[in-house]
Design a protein that fits this description.
The protein contains 5 helices and 8 strands, in the order αβββαβββαββαα. The chain is an alpha+beta fold. A hairpin with a 5-residue loop joins β5 and β6. The radius of gyration is 20 Å and the shape is globular. 25% of the residues are buried.
Length: 208
């Protein structure tokens, strides 16, 4: 009888875990769909992103470094002598952001050429789109495996890269209207609210 009770309890726990995994997977794909819509709208708007150093304001540094604490970037010259972010003033280690000579926003995982938001592997500096960051974190969490860079395979945390959009002052130049898709908020922070307060956020332990 005890064996039967244990078997029933184990079966129930297994079913519960399967239900949680299915819910997390559905929520992940819902959120990734939102991120991809944001990518597409950003591309249609022609968004351009500033490369300016947040400390010395040089507009086009040859090499950028990113804070692994907050995700803000600075130029290589400033990274040589500082250990503090000039924007949020937090102490941090800076790692070189791996970028090609064309300064593209290319995702090294899914080949998305124009991601609206990007994340960075804190150990190696390779960047990926934020949708891939969530997918990689999700797969690692469900499989109880460490997160590894999709490019160099090094174990690493993933941090959100903070990038400033250059204002577009041209009237009528945008190909995409903010009213094109009423189901998609134009503010990334609004999109993050249901994720931050949901079991998806707590159970999957996403920090990107």
């Amino acid at each position: 009888m005890a064996l039967l009770r244990n078997s029933t309890r184990d079966d129930a726990l297994s079913i519960k875990k399967d239900e949680v995994d299915e819910y997390l997977n559905e929520t992940l794909h819902w959120y990734m769909d939102i991120l991809k819509k944001m990518d597409h709208k950003s591309f249609l708007r022609g968004d351009r992103f500033s490369r300016s150093c947040s400390r010395c304001s040089i507009p086009y540094p040859n090499q950028r470094f990113v804070s692994i604490h907050c995700g803000h970037t600075i130029c290589s010259d400033c990274a040589e002598w500082t250990n503090q972010c000039s924007i949020c003033h937090s102490s941090s280690h800076f790692i070189r952001l791996i970028e090609d000579s064309n300064r593209s926003r290319y995702c090294s995982n899914c080949s998305n050429k124009f991601p609206h938001e990007r994340s960075v592997f804190s150990v190696c500096g390779h960047s990926i789109c934020r949708a891939c960051a969530y997918q990689i974190n999700f797969d690692a969490s469900i499989s109880s495996l460490p997160v590894v860079c999709s490019h160099c395979k090094k174990e690493s945390d993933i941090i959100h890269l903070i990038e400033e959009i250059i204002p577009n002052h041209g009237d009528g130049d945008n190909l995409c209207s903010e009213k094109d898709d009423s189901s998609l908020s134009s503010s990334p922070s609004n999109v993050l609210v249901p994720i931050r307060n949901s079991p998806f956020r707590r159970l999957a332990r996403y920090y990107v």
